[in-house]
């Protein structure tokens, strides 16, 4: 458990050695509907899977996983431990991941988000995502999911990938 957010945040590719820590963070972040370690493992071991972690002083404080196939990508899960929130961790993970997708030729990125998750929606909108649909009763508690879409800007407007990944 990270007690304080002292130190710089390092963003890097998710490794199999990170999976136990990522799954533990996931359980802390999400009370229900959380991913298990095998879910993260199966995804990052697919050719289309991509995973990143954010760490401070060697401790994982955030993560992101998604998929890319041809020119489309999907953000599947992003999380930041409570003590790491409102410090730019999610923004950094998303920016670097979108930069990677842009380099790899993705034209469109999709994600699902709870309508009640206002901080996440605000973050996604800052990157240019817009609501394009709704999945009724998507989550196990019956809450809908908003479908958000980003049409990637051209290479002249990079997201930036200056962090390690």
Number of strands: 7
CATH class: Alpha Beta
Please tell me the CATH architecture by its name. 3-Layer(aba) Sandwich
Order of helices and strands: EHHEEEHEHEE
What is the CA-CA span between the terminal residues? 23 Å
Can you give the helix content as a percent range?
25-40%
Q: What is the radius of gyration?
A: 15 Å
Low-confidence stretches: 1-5
Q: Return the structural class.
A: alpha+beta
User: Might you state the CATH topology name?
Assistant: Aminopeptidase
- Describe the global form: globular
Residue-averaged pLDDT: 89
Q: Provide the spatial order of strands within the biggest beta sheet.
A: 1-2-3-4-5-7-6
Instruction: Give the helix tally.
Output: 4
Percent of sequence in beta strands: 25-35%
CATH superfamily: Gcn5-related N-acetyltransferase (GNAT)
Taken together, the total number of domains comes to: 1
Q: Main β-sheet: number of strands, strand sense, barrel status?
A: 7 strands, mixed
Write the layout of secondary structure elements.
Blueprint: E1 9-13, H1 19-29, H2 37-44, E2 49-56, E3 59-69, E4 72-80, H3 89-103, E5 108-113, H4 118-126, E6 130-135, E7 145-151
Parallel strand pairs: 4-5
Antiparallel strand pairs: 1-2, 2-3, 3-4, 5-7, 6-7
What does this molecule look like?
With 165 residues, the protein is of the alpha+beta class. It has a single domain (9-151), classed as 3-Layer(aba) Sandwich (Aminopeptidase), CATH 3.40.630.30. The chain has helices at residues 19-29, 37-44, 89-103, 118-126; strands at 9-13, 49-56, 59-69, 72-80, 108-113, 130-135, 145-151. It has a seven-stranded mixed β-sheet. Strand 3 (59-69) and strand 4 form a beta hairpin. Helix 1 crosses helix 2. The chain is globular.
């Amino acid at each position: 458990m990270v007690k304080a957010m002292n130190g710089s945040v390092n963003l890097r590719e998710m490794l199999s050695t990170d999976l136990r820590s990522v799954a533990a963070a996931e359980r802390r972040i999400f009370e229900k509907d959380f991913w298990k370690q095998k879910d993260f493992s199966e995804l990052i071991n697919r050719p289309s899977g991509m995973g990143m972690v954010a760490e401070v002083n060697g401790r994982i404080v955030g993560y992101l996983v998604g998929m890319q196939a041809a020119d489309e990508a999907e953000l599947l899960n992003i999380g930041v431990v409570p003590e790491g929130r409102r410090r730019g961790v999610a923004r950094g993970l998303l920016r670097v991941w979108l930069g990677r997708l842009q380099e790899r030729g993705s034209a469109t990125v999709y994600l699902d988000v709870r309508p009640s998750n206002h901080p996440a929606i605000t973050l996604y909108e800052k990157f240019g995502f817009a609501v394009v649909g709704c999945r009724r009763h998507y989550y196990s508690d019956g809450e809908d999911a908003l479908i958000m879409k980003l049409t990637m800007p051209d290479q002249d407007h990079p997201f930036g990938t200056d962090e390690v990944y």
